[in-house]
Amino acid sequence: MTILDSAIDPATPGYLANRAALLERLTELDAALDQARAGGGDKYVSRHHARGKLLPRERIELLVDADSPFLELSPVAAYGTDFPVGASVVTGIGVVEGVECLIVANDPTVRGGAVNPWSLAKTRRAGEIALANRLPMVNLVESAGADLPTQAEIFIPGGRVFRDLTRLSAAGIPTVSVVFGNATAGGAYVPGMSDHVIMIRDRSQVYLAGPPLVKMATGEITDDESLGGAAMHAGTSGLADYLAADERDGIRLARQCVRRLNWRKHGPPPRTAVPEPPKYDPEELLGIVSSDLKVPFDPRAVLARILDGSDFDEFKPAYGDALVTGWGELHGWPIGVLANARGVLFSAEAQKAAQFIQLANASDTPLIFLQNTTGYMVGTEYEQRGITKHGALMINAVSNSTVPHLTVNLGASYGAGNYGMCGRAYEPRFLFTWPNAKSAVMGPAQLAGVLSIVARQAAAARGRDYDEESDAAMRMMVEQQIESQSGALFLSGRLYDDGVIDPRDTRTVLGLCLSAIHNGPVRGADGFGVFRM
User: Fold this and answer.
1) Are 142 and 40 in contact (CB under 8 A)?
2) How far apart are the C-alpha atoms of 495 and 129, rounded to whole Å?
């Protein structure tokens, strides 16, 4: 065993400053999460409860096994937009009758659970996770359908949600829907395309068009129950497979459905049944990353606080040492790790990464990417040494690797380094962000400086004097814009990750994801295309 040695002194001024800065970011995260949990606000929550109905998170709590975790995904979706934080839907992974399931629950306290552009994106991401990781999907449905003022943004892409439900079923991944209230228009297709459907007597209403629209379209006068009530669908149309007495009974029936799935994981079990915890306190993760992202840190200090027994076998430690690579276990699951030690990636780091990724695929080992990179090195010397082709080599390996990837942005994720370290575009199974982290084409000062240089060259080419005062104002404006648009909450609000997490929860979150991933087979790639050598 190779136990990592980590000497963090929590009493030093630098550590205390880093901790204080990260706690400030966590306070901002908690405020955003509180907004999401508040739903439509006290007025609509009270009205919903007064009708004898449960809130989405209350439904989830009854659905999942007692004392089991629920990993909520994209909890601050729509943050910084015109729509409520959380995007009127709750998604996440929970254990139901011992089976890890992807759960989607509409929040009817927010505009009746209507689907807006961000709730659509969040629901589609949930479907991607279910398919990629072979997770049964449980939909807790209560939605008024499309948010009509934004229909132009959701109508056409919204059809993918229904397509994805049928593809899950075709892939042998079961889908279950419990309808708690209205499921109108597009919302009706969620139960309509699910394998198992539960409706609640005198509560569920499923129809493509409600009574007013039916009258306008056909002249027929009808009522909710005759048109789409639970009893009608259970006894006449056959859309409902089970008829529940109330919400709690509906959740009981959903658990019963999952229990009868005879579900088995296709991936290998964890290597260690009772893994040894890290030898270092995860509380210390709060002070490791500098409040100034230009200051590098040793990712081994992070690994020592998340890996089983702080045990890590480093690969090529003396070569390309700006990138740490090696093997370990996390909650008993074997993993390979790629972690930035200094922000810049050189040719040696890129070549080392490509070889390591090939080895992980040869041994069917999932990979964890810990990002803190400013990108690949630039300049004449480095281009002549082949940084472009070596960076492409690494990105090729990441792109064509088929073992599961999990990514955590610990600090910076800039430029093509984001690609090489498996950013969102490279479809990691899960991607999470620490609240201090940032991601953009480049840092704010660098981007503003590039624009300034280009503007100076343009002025010189025209033979004009350069306005230094305007340049300073432009640079300040650009830096402020990039600073705000590269922050963790802003990016998470646009679903560029699966959630902003407390650093102290990193081990737990990754462990839950690794367990979910192993519902499906874990297999490495047979080929990687042409590598430029």
Assistant:
1) no
2) 13
Distance in angstroms (rounded) separating the CA atoms of residues 4 and 399: 30
Q: Which of 343, 282, 346 is nearest to 310 (CA)?
A: 282
The pLDDT value recorded for residue 447 is 67
> Under a CB-based contact definition with an 8 Å cutoff, are residues 133 and 405 in contact?
no
Q: How far is the C-alpha of 304 from the C-alpha of 530, rounded, in Å?
A: 36
The sign of the dihedral angle between the CA atoms of 54, 78, 425, 345 is: negative
Q: Is 61 in a helix, a strand, or coil? A: helix
Q: What's the 3-state SS for 184-233?
A: EHHHHHHHHCCCEEEEECCCCEEECCCHHHHHHHHCCCCCHHHHHEHHHH
Backbone angles phi, psi at 106, to 5 degrees: -65, 145
> Which token pair is 386?
């082949």
Euclidean distance between CA atoms 510 and 429, whole angstroms: 11
Is the pTM above the cut of 0.90? Answer: yes
User: Residue 462 and residue 13: Cα distance in Å, rounded?
Assistant: 51
* Spatial CA neighbour of 436 closest among 461, 412, 465: 412
Vertex 56: Cα angle to 52 and 61 (nearest 5) = 95
3-class SS of residue 406: strand
Higher pLDDT, 167 or 463: 167
Mean pLDDT of the chain: 93
